[in-house]
Amino acid sequence: MIDQPTIGPEKALKIRERAKRSKPKFVRPESWRYRRLKENWRRPRGLDNKMRRKIKGWPRTVSAGYRGPKVSRGLHPSGYKEVLVHKAEEIKKIDPKAQVIRIAHTVGKRSRAKILAEARKRKITVLNLKEAKELVKEEELKEEKAEKKEEAKEIVEIEKPKRKRRETKKREGEAENQ
What we know:
two-stranded parallel sheet; mainly alpha; elongated
């Protein structure tokens, strides 16, 4: 098999866009007739269906011949190759010039934080960063709450001896009254 020369992401996206222009907009059969049917593609399966039978005058159906160009397959709209990451160790294999990462949804908060830290060190773009930003904000809020609790504990500890003194004075006063 002959290796094709590597094409830059900008050029691959242009090729993809040009190919997409010549491709028809595939619509669900009879979606133009019934309001309740959306235009989302569904394969026609009926025995007498004209689209399935590819009858002249009916809309085109999805087939292998309409597949996108090889160079642009699997590219994110940003032009980079998208890689799904589950662990922080997987980031070491990623090339920041040609690839971007998407953190898997099964990854927990701690692992996500580790992955983000590693990605920042290596200057790798994270696609689902919005969720991660929310996590970082949550962690900051938790830290602030923890600091407030510590301050409250310190205040309580300072006030505790005063209360004890008052209580002992009250008890002494009661003992004198009896």
